[in-house]
Design goal:
The chain has 215 residues and is of the alpha/beta class. It is built from six helices and ten strands; from the N terminus they run βαββαβαβααββββαβ. Helix 1 links the parallel strand 1 and strand 2. Helix 1 packs across helix 6, helix 2 crosses helix 3 and helix 3 runs parallel beside helix 5. The longest helix is centred in the middle third of the chain and has 16 residues.
Length: 215
């Protein structure tokens, strides 16, 4: 499978890129800084800005799916990243006949706030609020796009090896996630890669956390 990836220089995106390449997929990494990535077999690095529809359309040529693993730096937590990126992603995907799009979001974004518990939900309404509004502004455009989309909603991310059985559920199940829903980037990357080929997740907000904790 040939996967277009946005966010390959971020920690979650790098993990997703490496897992995809290790699994034998071809990856087109669309990044602002091509020199930040090391050459690997199966990896095609394309430079471009998030709002450049023409460059993104060229990058997606021949791709089977799109994975979006964008995230702001701490110093840019108010930046409109998803609101900027999602419209050209939709346009470029349609121009290339690419139907499958999997987007990294966060637990507590939009309707998934109902799946949170205190104290995490306090953060959703305070220091995470601006970033979450940006996610909603971008992701809300997927529903009417005609694409086969899935959004993936982890808790606070950390770097560690994959766990054996992360908790992954549809937000509409009403499941309440742990009070401190820590999630490993390696688990998120594996879940996103699996969901690309899982039609059961199309049109869904999928929740994920690495450690299932007591209520």
């Amino acid at each position: 499978m040939k996967i277009a990836l946005l966010g390959a220089t971020g920690r979650t995106g790098t993990e997703l890129m490496n897992q995809a390449l290790d699994a034998g997929h071809e990856v087109v990494a669309y990044v602002r800084r091509p020199d930040a990535l090391t050459s690997r077999e199966g990896l095609n690095v394309v430079g471009g800005q998030l709002d450049d529809r023409e460059a993104l359309t060229r990058a997606m040529d021949g791709c089977d799916a799109v994975a979006v693993a964008l995230g702001p730096k701490i110093s840019q937590h108010n930046a409109p990243i998803m609101a900027t990126a999602i419209p050209p992603v939709i346009a470029a995907a349609k121009a290339n006949g690419v139907k499958r799009v999997v987007v990294l979001s966060a637990l507590g974004v939009g309707d998934t706030f109902a799946n949170t518990r205190y104290p995490y939900r306090f953060g959703c309404r305070t220091f995470l609020a601006a970033n979450f509004r940006d996610h909603v502004a971008g992701e809300s455009q997927l529903a009417g796009s005609g694409l086969d989309w899935t959004t993936v909603h982890p808790g606070p991310l950390s770097d560690a090896p994959r766990t054996a059985r992360p908790l992954i559920v549809d937000a509409k199940s009403g499941t309440k996630m742990p009070r401190a829903p820590r999630t490993r980037r390696s688990d998120v990357a594996a879940a996103m890669l699996a969901m690309i080929e899982d039609p059961a997740t199309i049109g869904k907000q999928m929740l994920i956390t690495s450690a299932v904790q007591a209520a």
